[in-house]
Amino acid sequence: MADRGLFIQGLRVSVEGTEILKGIDLVVEPGRVHALMGPNGSGKSTLALALAGHPKYTVDAGTATLDGTDLLALAADKRAKAGLFLSFQYPAAIPGVTVANFLRSARQAVHPDDLTPAKFRKLIFDLLEILEMDPSFLGRYVNDGFSGGEKKRLEMMQLAVLAPKYAILDETDSGLDVDALRAVGRSVNAMRDSEATKDAGYLIITHYPRILEHIAPDVVHVMIDGRIVKRGDAKLAHRIEREGYDAIRDEVGSAV
Questions:
Q1: Strands 166-170 and 201-206
Q2: 100 in the Ramachandran plot: left (φ > 0), alpha (ψ -120 to 50) or beta?
Q3: What is the set of domains in the chain, with CATH numbers?
Q4: Whole-Å CA distances, 251 to 49, 53, 209, 230, 256
Q5: How buried is 198 (Cβ within 10 angstroms: 0-12 exposed, 13-18 middle, 19+ buried)?
Q6: Helix (H, G, I), strand (E, B), or coil: what is residue 145?
Q7: Cβ atoms of 48 and 22 closer than 8 Å
């Protein structure tokens, strides 16, 4: 299908009357990994939350479609059912709801009855092994008392369980130690190798190229002051690590 992809065109978004995104054009294709890099306050998380349907963010202009479906016309839950996944920078705790029940309910909401209980159980225990998590994790309450690494591992488990068409990972590497970061990378790469989820597209939002050492990007975009000012391959991420964002600002000049 020619319209397959997450297409964002001319997107302008404001928060309480202040414009944050100033005309974003971006396409995430099935089966490809895009990295969105930029300094603090550049608008990266605003893009993620606006696409997910957070009510705080007002879309003033532009379009966003997911495989031909008008994403912006859908309620937040319908966007998830259409195939969009967002991992939050700061996942919320849900005391009283176990991880096992949460994962099963989430899968049922998005893909009703597509896995038998036995197949769902196998999926969960395969993921526990990939993410190096003890099975007792399933009996704990969602994110309640979790370390930063445990929260991010759970989000990667949610990602694999929901099997979205397009996944936005908003600073998934934030606060992770080396082992947790490696586990997150293994989880995403396992999904990219899986027959069921190999066509998923990814938008990885990050300040630093650490996570990109474990998940190789096909395209790197740089956002500064609410605009995407530069695109390139993985070499661009390494250049940012060496030279910082000021070098990009100086290069693009009046564009920002």
A1: parallel
A2: alpha
A3: 32-53+84-255 (3.40.50.300)
A4: 29, 34, 20, 10, 10
A5: exposed
A6: coil
A7: no
Q: What is each CA distance from 144 to 82, 93, 107, 239, in whole angstroms?
A: 29, 5, 21, 38
Structure tokens, 25: 């054009």
Position 118 scores a pLDDT of 93
What's the pLDDT at 147?
86
Q: What is the pLDDT of residue 1?
A: 45
Please identify which residue in the block is written with the tokens 């130690």: 177
| pTM, to two decimals | 0.90
From the list 250, 243, 245, 90, the residue with the least C-alpha distance to 171 is 90
Q: Is the sign of the CA dihedral 231, 236, 240, 243 positive or negative?
A: negative
Kindly report, residue by residue over 7-22, the tens digit of the pLDDT. Answer: 999 999 999 999 999 9
- Kind and range of the H or E run holding 133: none
Q: Which three-class secondary structure state does DSSP give residue 114?
A: coil
110 closest CA partner among 139, 141, 86, 79: 79
Q: How far apart are CA 18 and CA 235, in angstroms?
A: 34
